[in-house]
Amino acid sequence: MSDLRQIAFYGKGGIGKSTTSQNTLAALVDLGQKILIVGCDPKADSTRLILNAKAQDTVLHLAAQEGSVEDLELEDVLKAGYKGIKCVESGGPEPGVGCAGRGVITSINFLEENGAYDDVDYVSYDVLGDVVCGGFAMPIRENKAQEIYIVMSGEMMALYAANNIAKGILKYAHSG
């Protein structure tokens, strides 16, 4: 295995971020790379193309069913998609209850502690970019992602979201 590369795709919801990231990752797996996608969007739609399915159970949903995240096994949350790409969705709380960013933190910590990153070349975080929230900034803030790609269009709200993401990158750039 080569050195692990952790990348993050950020962008406004509906801009094509998940489509762009999944197509990029499909090309990488075609080149022989081993991939793990961590969906960091409460909609849990970051892996639909790779899985050729509507949605998968999320870490937070499964943890709620089992009692806590400590009651989960890696096999419970990981699904294999196109050419063996490993997929996991963080998920989020019910609307109006709790913090979706906390789900991102919980999921990433669970994956790291249980060895999900051990046998892959790339970990890709597909992150919601319209919400300014500490949990969604985790791939940047805690030096998880060394490469960050912002997917956007020329539309005003997409530019606004991209600008906020860039500000977050600058704020946390000193940490790594």
Oligomer: single chain
Helix/sheet category: alpha/beta
Largest sheet: 6 strands, mixed
CATH class group: Alpha Beta
GO molecular function, one term: oxidoreductase activity
Keywords: 4Fe-4S, ATP-binding, Iron, Iron-sulfur, Metal-binding, Nucleotide-binding, Oxidoreductase
Protein name: Nitrogenase iron protein
Family: Belongs to the NifH/BchL/ChlL family.
Short description:
It comes from Rhizobium chutanense. This protein is α/β, with parallel strands linked by helices and 176 residues long.
Which features does this protein show?
176 residues; Rossmann fold; 6-stranded mixed beta sheet; 6 strands; 37% helix; 18% strand
Q: What would you note in describing this structure?
A:
Its cofactor is [4Fe-4S] cluster. Helix content is 37%, strand content 18%. It has helices at 17-30, 48-51, 59-66, 74-77, 100-113, 138-141, 156-172; strands spanning 5-11, 35-40, 79-80, 86-89, 122-128, 147-151. It has one domain (5-173): Rossmann fold (3-Layer(aba) Sandwich), CATH 3.40.50.300. With 176 residues, the chain is an alpha/beta fold. The chain is built from seven helices and six strands; from the N terminus they run βαβαααββαβαβα.
